[in-house]
């Protein structure tokens, strides 16, 4: 089997020595090409090349951002034709996709699981979401959560380490910086429902948990499933009490958040979010800029994952 291994050398939980051990183990079973990423979107280019050069497998050694870029490269031009399968050796600070799939966070254990999957031919289809033309593997966001991610990325660029404490401090700072916390500007549109106006923040996901705060899972959309459509969680107010209540319920309830300000949708094939002013957007924890309108689409069985 011919495989491209894409390594993020800045991955926070794998050392160079560990990566050498993993590559040695994988090289016993596959013909490997190994490339380390050097800049943002590099993995997207590598995923595109893997498809064009007909690699059978692409292995991501890194976090959710590396995986997202690879998926977007592999699927550039759509899902038609022979696509390489995807494999994951987690190396990021959160590893949301891997944890949702049940892939061990320990890179040695994840490599062992991958080798077993390759020897037995085990593959799992994975449904994705798409925000405009950008695919996401587990979540997208519009509004406050994307604003937090933008601020965290700025902090990391300045040399800060991605830790749960950094996310909490940043979330609190950006929450209090919102111009109008009582009234949202987003309109949510989906087939078969009346438009929902005044949404202040929207989280769109295709699995649950949506993310983790350290080892604590947060579940705004507990029914979300890789084999179904997209789920939505929104708040029509960022008032302090409704927001704190919703966050607490995400962390403690397994059947979803409740409240007058909560908006939820389940198993949607497509939906649109509009705002009269540009708002930040994110996919899989990567800030992608500000938009006035985003369209989100569920893409069933988009790729196959070996694990």
From TrEMBL:
GO cellular component terms, semicolon-separated: plasma membrane
SMART domains listed in its UniProt record: DAGKc
Cofactor(s) the record lists: Mg(2+)
Keywords, in A-Z order: Kinase, Transferase
Domain DAGKc: 1-135
InterPro entries according to UniProt: ATP-NAD_kinase_N (IPR017438), Diacylglycerol_kinase_cat_dom (IPR001206), Lipid_Phosphate_FormReg (IPR050187), NAD/diacylglycerol_kinase_sf (IPR016064)
Molecular function (Gene Ontology), one example: ATP-dependent diacylglycerol kinase activity
Pfam families in the record: DAGK_cat (PF00781)
Keyword Chloroplast: no
Similarity field: Belongs to the diacylglycerol/lipid kinase family.
Protein name: Diacylglycerol kinase family lipid kinase
Organism of this sequence: Phytoactinopolyspora halotolerans
């Amino acid at each position: 089997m011919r495989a491209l291994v894409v390594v993020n050398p800045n991955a926070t939980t794998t050392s160079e020595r560990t990566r050498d051990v993993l590559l040695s183990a994988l090289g016993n079973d596959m013909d490997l090409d190994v490339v380390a990423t050097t800049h943002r979107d590099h993995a997207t280019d590598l995923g595109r090349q893997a498809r064009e050069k007909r690699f059978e497998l692409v292995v991501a050694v890194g976090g959710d951002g590396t995986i997202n870029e690879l998926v977007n490269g592999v699927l550039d031009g759509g899902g038609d034709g022979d696509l390489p399968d995807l494999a994951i050796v987690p190396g990021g600070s959160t590893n949301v996709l891997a944890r949702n799939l049940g892939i061990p966070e320990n890179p040695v254990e994840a490599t062992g699981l991958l080798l077993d999957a390759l020897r037995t031919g085990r593959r799992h289809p994975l449904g994705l979401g798409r925000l405009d033309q950008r695919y996401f593997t587990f979540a997208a966001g519009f509004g406050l959560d994307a604003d937090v991610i933008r601020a965290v990325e700025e902090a990391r660029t300045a040399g800060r380490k991605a830790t749960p404490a950094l996310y909490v401090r940043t979330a609190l700072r950006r929450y209090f910086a919102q111009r109008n916390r009582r009234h949202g500007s987003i309109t949510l549109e989906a087939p078969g429902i009346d438009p929902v106006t005044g949404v202040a923040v929207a989280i769109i996901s295709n699995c649950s948990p949506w993310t983790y705060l350290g080892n604590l899972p947060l579940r705004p959309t507990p029914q979300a499933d890789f084999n179904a459509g997209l789920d939505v969680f929104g708040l029509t107010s960022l008032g302090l009490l409704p927001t704190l209540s919703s966050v607490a319920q995400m962390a403690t309830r397994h059947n979803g958040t409740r409240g007058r300000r909560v908006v939820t949708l389940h198993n949607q094939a497509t939906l649109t979010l509009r705002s009269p002013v540009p708002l930040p957007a994110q996919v899989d924890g990567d800030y992608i800029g500000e938009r006035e309108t985003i369209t989100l689409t569920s893409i069933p069985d988009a790729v196959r994952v070996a694990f």
